[in-house]
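User: Good morning. I'm curious how adenosine monophosphate would be positioned relative to this chain. Could you predict the structure with it bound?
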Amino acid sequence: MDTPYKQTTVGILGAGQLARMMALSGYPLGLNFLFYDPEPTACAGQVGDLMTADYDNQIALDEFCRKVDVVTLDFENVPVDTLRFVQKRKPVFPDPDVLEIAQDRLLEKNFISEIGIPVAEYFSVDSHSELMFAAKRCDYDAFLKTRRLGYDGKGQYRIKQQADVNQLDEADFKQPMVIERAVDFEREVSVIIVRNTNGESATWPLCENKHKNGILTTTIAPAKTLDNDEVAFDYAQRIADALNYVGVLVVEFFQTKDGFLVNEIAPRVHNSGHWTIEGAYTSQFENHLRAGLGLNFGPTGSPGVAAMINWIGAFPQDVNSITDKDLYWHIYGKAPREGRKIGHCTLLAESPQQLHSRILSLVKQLGVSL
Ligand code: AMP
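Assistant: Good morning! Here's the predicted structure, ligand included:
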């Protein structure tokens, strides 16, 4: 008689492209997925079953929990109450306590500085008079950010001179904010770390990231090696350990001539890790699942170099016609909209020089500028 085969079902709160890529990496491991999202057209629904309900719908959440074995997320702003409700029924990774910190820029910066890791000088501001004081302390060269729900440059206001502060008024303070000094960085990098319940961890090579209007446009990995890079890995390890983290955690840094400052942490798989799908021996998505399911990690090294280019708002016209050895397209199945990430491509090469010339040739063929 055949032994009954019980497939493990991973529930994912949020059904965007991260959930979609997680599922695509998990199917070869024999996993099944159930997505949960308030939006019926959420793009992970194209590759697996999607439950559509609000995050505070306890009847739907209860049904979701009965259908899955373990739960993770593709979106760090899933309400903490939802995560705690789910955690009473099924294991959740990362832990809701981590999300509570990461959802609030002030709590996140307090936590990181309390464990002795540097961040840009920052102040909590809840009123125009507090802003006047703090902006002056930042020499009127700063970023004003909402504490909650800011991502991809949303909820950010750049202050370059005193007049930028003067033109705000009390009505602009409907929600708590932080102001942080503008950092004169040499480059932006991120460390992707995966950690399991036993405290074992692994990191991928350092990623160098370029942003436009606060949105990630390209990642190159491994980043060109600089003398003190291991400091960034040490900081990421300390953050992951202090949070007793399970799954993939991404720490974004400003690298300055005086060292590294943490910009923010992402308690989930991250856009700067998409290159790992083809560019590393094991992707961030697969190892995130492995961490949560108590499986050994796959190796995180990379045989060559990779570039990830994001398509934001629209695709270059010829997206489907360009094929090449070592070029991989990822189209997320999302309706194009200004500022929205709708796909990416990854280019691989054996050396940074070869990668550079491949990027130039691709950009020329596509008729785009990066
Ligand atoms: P965030 O959403 O906070 O990660 O910000 C998005 C991007 O805006 C960052 O990756 C930087 O390129 C830029 N940015 C944000 N805060 C600062 C800062 N304090 N100094 C310099 N650039 C910043």
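Residues 41 and 155 are 25 Å apart (CA to CA). The chain has eleven helices and 17 strands.
Let me know if you'd like a different ligand tried.
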